[in-house]
Every structure is written in C-alpha cells, then in structure tokens.
Write a structure and sequence with these properties.
The chain has eight helices and five strands. The chain is an alpha/beta fold. The protein has two domains: 169 residues, Nucleotidyltransferase, domain 5 (2-Layer Sandwich); 31 residues.
C-alpha cells in the first residue's frame, strides 16, 4: 500500500467554530522509500487567522489572500490520497479539519476516501509512555535535523515526520541485514556485509572471582525475596 505523510496548517484550533485549512503538505512513500511525489498547496481560508496560529506557522492573511480556495484543489488532493495509508501526527486534528472542509463541499466523509489513517502520535505514546511525544520531541529523540525549520509548515513537518517514522519503525529482527539495509558511509558507498559464520569467535568464561561474585549476588536476591526467587544460587 502507498503511504503518505500528511500535515496541515490552519487558521486556529477548532473547525466546528469555522477555522479552516490554510496549508496542506503530503509526501508519498512506497516500500519504505520516499518516491519524490508530493502535494503541497497554500489556501485562502476566506477568514482571518488567529494571532496565536500565525505565530506558529507565519502564514499571514495578506500572504494567503491570492491563494486558491480549498474547493479549487479538493479533487486534486483526493486523487493524490486515493487508497493510500495516511501517516499523520495527532491525526484527529488534521482529519477533523479535512472532514469539515469536505462537508462544506458535500463530498462525504474524508476517511472513506483513503485506505486508512495511522496516528503516529499514538504509535509514539505506545513506544514511549509518559514522555513528550510531540514531533519536535521525537525529532530530538531520533536525532532528526530540524535546523532548517524556523516555523511550522505542512510540507516540512510532513518531511520531518517521514524521517521520524522510518527511524521509529526500523526494527532489527536478526543479525543478518538485507541488501536494502546496508549502511552507507561517506560518499554514499555501501558498506560490504560480513558473514560472521566464517569467523572463529573465542568464548571467554568468567574468572573464579567473577563466578563467586555472581553466585553471591543471586543468593542476596533470593534472600531479599524471602526465598521466592525463581532461580537458586548453584551449589559450590
């Protein structure tokens, strides 16, 4: 399935109070590789933006005045998203706004126009419970470079989310890496894979002192648990 990273910027926080979408940014990924296909539009919301919102994204009413209205780009956007899995950080926010925009045009539920919606914020909260899981926090955690971003923008945030998602979901199920997973060094050259089965690896056992310390630690743990430990210190 095609995956598309999507982000929006808006005039405010509540579409039920008339707030509108003013920017949509989307990046396509297939087989965990960005294809270069994208959808990006600034939009005239036909209403002023809240001052707090402008401080976040920097998109002024004057800048948006000559941009197309959502109705003018809606069909193109839906065609780009058709059948794809959408990856959105805090999906309820963006989907709520897009549902409201489509409802104004009588075009039916937004979620039925796509394959499915995956909330990367929910994924992050499951992986890092009790921690900050904003996009900025995840960029810091996964060392994603944000130095080129001064303000929030839909397309740049979609690109940052793509990098975070790839790092967040890059599990390693075995010690053998596929050709697609080869690390690249300076100049983009692939690092050759090494077959560890050809190496005669020595097995280093514990010294008598290390073994005695290990037995003592197990005995202390067993005593602290009132003899309820599932292991027992081996008899010397």
């Amino acid at each position: 399935m095609r995956q598309i990273f999507l982000d929006t910027e808006t005039t405010g926080l509540d579409p039920t109070n008339g707030d509108r979408v003013i920017e949509v940014g989307c990046l396509e990924m297939v087989n965990r590789r960005l294809t270069g296909a994208r959808f990006h539009r600034y939009l005239n919301p036909e209403r002023p933006s809240h001052e707090d919102a402008v401080r976040v994204h920097g998109l002024t009413d004057e800048f948006l005045a000559d941009k197309p209205k959502f109705a003018e780009v809606c069909d193109e956007l839906l065609a780009f998203l058709d059948g794809a899995e959408l990856l959105i950080h805090n999906a309820a926010f963006d989907v709520g706004f897009l549902e409201a925009e489509l409802a104004r045009l009588g075009k039916g539920p937004f979620v039925k126009r796509v394959g499915r919606v995956t909330d990367t914020l929910a994924m992050a909260r499951e992986m890092f419970p009790g921690k900050s899981n904003s996009l900025d926090a995840l960029c810091r955690r996964f060392e994603v470079d944000t130095s080129h971003r001064d303000l929030h923008g839909a397309l740049i945030d979609a690109a940052l989310l793509a990098e975070v998602y790839l790092r967040m979901t890059r599990g390693q199920d075995s010690l053998v890496m596929s050709d697609d997973d080869r690390l690249t060094g300076a100049g983009g050259h692939a690092t050759p894979l090494i077959d560890l089965r050809a190496l005669d690896l020595p097995v280093v056992g514990p010294t008598p002192d290390e073994l005695a310390a290990h037995h003592a630690l197990l005995a202390d743990l067993d005593k602290a648990s009132g003899g309820k430990a599932v292991w027992k210190a081996p008899v010397a």
